[in-house]
Design goal:
The chain is of the alpha+beta class and 245 residues long. The protein has 8 helices and 11 strands.
Length: 245
């Protein structure tokens, strides 16, 4: 079972415009240095979004193997990234814009996933009301990460697994908002992190509610399921989010 979310942060701007299209979070736009199991360092680049994504190194398609190493890869006829036997070496240079075009099967599958995601949320009237909080323009989305902004945080637990803390709401409020948070060796809260990394231009406030106890056990939402492309995922994560909201 994958680590299913026990903490949901709903960003108002990300919920905007779901009735027209699903918001797709783009991959991190810069190169990333990765240390492989043998200590060698390679540079990779992520491309796409959460519905269709791939990784390159030196302009070539790559993927991480079960042994932790990255290998050169290729798309199958079904649009699935498959590793070859050739391991990625440190000499590969980073690349910005990908020249790799995923096959039609992968593009069509991503389109179907976006539509399914949009349908899941567009019918929720209380989510739709959040659409008015911010328009889905690039300028409004950028504005989320500057100034004083409020974010709703919903704590959820399952019928068979609950928080062990006597005061989870207070604990998570401090974890997210407290200046100088130091519990369990922490070196600041989420608020400290965002303030520091934005040069004090972003001042978020996380409003914590819950915990909400879901109607089913953890396995109902988080049991592993394998799709037709052998990709493993949780079985009902969206249902968990919809029920919590």
């Amino acid at each position: 079972m994958k680590n299913i979310l026990a903490l949901i942060i709903l960003l108002p701007g990300l919920l905007a415009g779901f009735s027209q299209r699903a918001y797709a979070v783009k991959a991190y736009p810069y190169s990333i240095k990765i240390t492989q199991p043998d200590g060698s360092v390679i540079t990779i680049q992520k491309h796409g979004d959460e519905f269709l994504n791939w990784t390159t190194s030196g302009g070539r398609l790559v993927t991480q193997g079960v042994d932790g190493f990255y290998y050169q890869a290729q798309f199958s006829s079904r649009g699935v990234v498959q590793a070859t036997a050739t391991r990625v070496r440190p000499a590969a240079a980073p690349q910005g814009v990908s020249t790799i075009t995923p096959p039609a099967a992968a593009i069509e599958r991503a389109r179907a996933r976006r539509e399914d995601f949009a349908r899941t949320f567009s019918g929720r009237s209380h989510l739709s009301r959040l659409n008015g909080v911010a328009s889905a323009t690039p300028a409004s989305l950028r504005s989320i990460s500057s100034g004083n902004r409020k974010f709703l945080t919903i704590l959820v637990q399952f019928s068979d697994k609950s928080f062990t803390s006597a005061s989870p709401q207070g604990d998570f409020f401090n974890l997210l908002n407290q200046d100088g948070y130091a519990v369990n060796g922490a070196t600041g809260s989420a608020w400290n992190y965002f303030r520091e990394n934005s040069s004090d231009t972003f001042d978020p406030q996380f409003d914590v509610v819950g915990p909400v106890t879901l109607s089913h056990d953890m396995a109902y939402y988080g049991a592993n399921v394998t799709d037709e492309d052998d990709n493993e995922d949780d079985i009902r994560p969206r249902e968990m989010v919809v029920e919590a909201v």
